[in-house]
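Data deposition worksheet. Section B asks for the primary sequence of the deposited chain exactly as it was used as input, without tags or linkers unless they were present during the calculation. Section C holds the resulting structure in token form. Section D is free text for depositor observations; keep each observation to a single sentence. Incomplete worksheets are returned to the depositor.
Section A, Depositor: J.P.
Section B:
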Amino acid sequence: MEKIKVIIENKQKTVRIPTGIRLLIRRCCHATLALENFKGSAEIGVSIVNDDQIRRINNEYREVDSSTDVLSFPMGENGEFDKNPETGAYILGDIVLSIERAKEQSVQFGHSLQREVGYLVVHSVLHILGYDHVDGGLESVRMREKEEEIMASVGLPRGPLYVLSGNER
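Section C:
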């Protein structure tokens, strides 16, 4: 893995972004690509939005008129990504993260906002790389195991207070 460029934009004013969140997002992107043995330079875009904004994006691109915690927009398929002609870096895709929803879910699951944001970023990068959990099964289990391995590697392992709901990701 060479250089990873993570472009982060805060596009909302609903929730104040705590100090260190941008660094955490970058660390989670790097850790995920490292675990996946990604070769070459890469670019990932991360937009931080509120619930109304993510609902609109979800409706526009997925025709689902509801808010969600995170959306992933891969720019490649089957592990093949276009390269930025100016930098030579692979353009992996974009992540849209609702900081408002992340804050709510951190309370719901009984852990820090940092763990929730980190988890959502790791989850999204894995989607960008081609992982899917929608149909459940073995792929869902493998994705979950990788998420937890990466979270532990960045110092945010699942703690004893972690509470599962009926809607576990």
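Section D:
The chain has one domain: 4-153.
The beta strands are 4-10, 42-49, 70-74, 76-77, 80-81, 90-98.
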